[in-house]
Amino acid sequence: MAAAPANDQMAETWSREFLKAAKTGDFGPLLELIREDAVLISDGGGKVRAAINPILSRARVIAFWQGIQAKGTLQGDWVPTRINGETGLVHYRDGKVVHIIMFEGDAQGRIRRFYLVSNPDKLIGAPPPGHK
Question: How far apart are the first and last CA of the chain?
Answer without folding.
Answer: 35
